[in-house]
Amino acid sequence: MVQPINPNRRLIIPALGGLYASAYEGAETLLRVIAGGFLVIHGFPKIMNPFGAAGMVESIGFYPPTFWALMLALGEFGGGLLLMIGLLTRPAAAVTTFILLVTVYFHWILQAQGFSGAEKSILWAAITLFFVIRGGNRHSVDAKIGREF
Questions:
Q1: Where is the chain membrane-spanning (predicted)?
Q2: Higher per-residue pLDDT: 2 or 77
């Protein structure tokens, strides 16, 4: 298990050390649940119309567009759901990170919006990349079943 708090670091207010140590896993879990939940919310319309984004994915260069529109819907909604509950956390986070990096390309390059257009996708990609590297913690289904990717 990764040691979340360095016991040798010197805090300006040492009394806060216990609070930081006790809140570490809860904050990490909250970030995972919120990120997954937001991806589920964002992916829900795509699941309801899984081929509706075919024109958009084709404009980015993904062929065949109906296949990739379906993958986008499953990746956002399903990947978000898996991330939220912490099941297959790393693969789910990897899929959603890929989707978010494509949206960075779409907004920054294809839509010529630059950083301001891609800013949210960059932030979300950084969050999901964290979970690719870290995986779920003890508050995940992966931990409950005793197996992780």
A1: 29-47, 67-85, 92-109, 121-137
A2: 77
